[in-house]
Write a structure and sequence with these properties.
InterPro entries: Pyridox_Oxase_N, Split_barrel_FMN-bd
Helix content: 10-25%
Structural class: alpha+beta
Pfam family, one: PNPOx_N
Strand content: 25-35%
Radius of gyration: 19 Å
Distance between the termini: 25 Å
Protein name: Pyridoxamine 5'-phosphate oxidase N-terminal domain-containing protein
Largest sheet: 7 strands, antiparallel
CATH class of one domain: Mainly Beta
Length: 174
């Protein structure tokens, strides 16, 4: 799938990228990256030089998940796909433009894009260095915000809201 222009722009403007692969025991392996590059055919290329466990995980199970977000653009996306250590000359060449000593390229073929704009409809307070102002505990407790004590757009507390524990039965976005 070709990546939409707004996703490509977010990748270009992203401050940080998170990539998740699966270990042999099925637990997630999370790494951060600053070097995600869009490539042809809706793929993303990453320098794989220091990602030894990620490369090992992808060789066993190609499923991977990527989070890209841009504070400047005030948006983000979850990208679902399949990754591999790439032997394609064009992938190695692309990575070496930025990291000349790189010997490995990881290619992630994106199959699905999820827009994370759902949170824009919620009345979340902006979080500063000291945390969200006025939130002292779970919604409804002293210090919670919102017209009915919650923090969501309707005032009702929702799993995933600051100070509210996630409830797996409600299908949260985490």
């Amino acid at each position: 799938m070709e990546l939409p222009p707004e996703v490509l722009q977010t990748i270009k403007m992203t401050d940080f990228t998170a990539i998740v692969t699966l270990r042999a025991d099925g637990t997630p392996h999370l790494v951060g990256a600053w070097n995600l590059l869009p490539a042809s055919e809706g793929a993303l290329i990453l320098s794989g030089e220091r990602y030894v466990e990620t490369r090992r995980n992808l060789a066993r199970d190609p499923r991977c998940w990527v989070l890209v977000a841009s504070r400047e653009m005030d948006t983000g996306y979850r990208l679902y796909g399949r990754g591999e250590v790439s032997a394609r000359p064009e992938d190695i060449e692309l990575v070496r433009r930025y990291w000349p000593r790189c010997h490995f390229a990881i290619r992630i073929q994106v199959d699905q894009v999820e827009d994370l704009a759902y949170w824009k409809a919620l009345a979340f307070p902006r979080v500063g260095p000291a945390g969200p102002a006025g939130l002292a505990g779970p919604a409804g407790s002293a210090g919670a915000t919102g017209p009915t004590g919650g923090t969501g757009a309707t005032g009702a507390a929702r799993p995933g809201d600051p100070g509210v524990p996630n409830d797996p039965s409600r299908g949260t976005h985490d």
